[in-house]
Design a protein that fits this description.
Length: 225
């Protein structure tokens, strides 16, 4: 169970970092391509955005992980206090959990009494089945920051590489659009497959969102310039 949750957290962080990494820098590069005539400007601005985005996204992941950990610890402390202060009420809550599973009142009482003999297991049960909370990995915040930040960098560099191999922003944008479209589709396909959604439909949705964002940025920059 624990390995499954770790894997879910890891996949979720990759999705967060990669999806923003592919769309935001690509939209920025597309917008600049409609306003400037030098690839160096696009590359410089793109790299600056990737660095800033990596730090911001990574920090966001770190703070979210810390918040999750602090919330769990706060609720854990409260459950221990309630077990000590109002054990009868906590026993009734255990019975309610098993009542939802269709167990008889006799079975509910027997399980609740047996469970209450071990305070740690009793509290752990309440955390999982009453509050729906799993203990976060101690390195969750750090791992989340690194995974999201790295995924953002990888995703952001993919559309930007096109400008290294072209002579002007428009050619760079065309090549970048091809690269990004392929990457968005592949990313959307595997993301949907992992999360249990229809892969093709999910891939098309992710691709469409990225291209619409880039098209809007390009159109606005072109109109202003």
């Amino acid at each position: 169970m624990e390995n499954h949750l770790k894997s879910s957290d890891f996949i979720s962080d990759i999705v967060i970092g990669m999806s923003d990494g592919l769309t935001v820098p690509f939209a920025l590069a597309a917008g600049l391509s409609g306003a400037v005539d030098n690839n160096n400007i696009v590359i410089t601005a793109g790299i600056a955005e990737i660095v800033a985005g990596c730090i911001a996204m990574g920090l966001g992941g770190y703070l979210a992980g810390k918040t999750e950990q602090h919330h769990y610890e706060h609720e854990l402390k409260r459950e221990y206090e309630e077990v000590e202060r109002v054990p009868e009420k906590e026993l009734e809550e255990v019975k309610e959990v098993f009542a939802d599973y269709g167990l008889s009142p006799e079975s509910q009482h027997l399980i609740a009494v047996e469970l209450s003999k071990d305070k740690d297991k009793w509290v752990d049960f309440m955390m999982k089945f009453e509050l729906g909370l799993e203990k976060p990995h101690p390195n969750r915040a750090r791992n989340s920051a690194l995974t999201i930040g790295t995924s953002y960098i990888v995703g952001g560099l993919l559309p930007l590489t096109a400008y290294f191999f072209t002579s002007n922003p428009i050619d760079g944008l065309l090549l970048s659009a091809i690269i990004t479209t392929i990457c968005l589709f592949i990313f959307g396909y595997f993301k949907s497959k992992v999360t249990g959604q229809p892969p093709i439909i999910g891939a098309l949705k992710v691709t469409l969102i990225g291209l619409v964002a880039a098209g809007a940025a390009f159109g606005i920059a072109k109109a202003i310039s």
